[in-house]
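[job 4471] stage=fold_predict status=RUNNING
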Amino acid sequence: MRIFNQLLLISSLVPLVLNYPFFPPTCYSKVLSMSRELTQLAAHLKRDHETSYCMAHMPDLYLDVHNSCVMYKMRTYISLVEGLRQRRCAYTGEVRKLGVTLRQLFIFMSQKCHGDLVFTIHDCAALER
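[job 4471] inference complete, writing structure tokens
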């Protein structure tokens, strides 16, 4: 009976171990993937017919995590998203998701991986493409 219990335990743990990523994401890879996701989401929201009326006056969002101006760009964009006063825009799930995720990325970059990130360029105009 004890062998059966151990086999049952092992057989239930094997799928968990095989599905678990072997290398957790680093701060850099997490920031890079989040910035790409947010850039794509903002572009999608500007093209989408349901949210284009909300995002029409918003600047394009391009996040380059290697550019030291990215923190200023994110702070400005967070303020713009949170400042949407039109009721339909403020309660649109995708627009809200953009603001929340952008704030998470900002906090992640400024607090969680502050020492792990290195800005290689300082070109604010490059973020305004």
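[job 4471] summary: The CA atoms of residues 105 and 111 lie 10 Å apart.
[job 4471] exit 0
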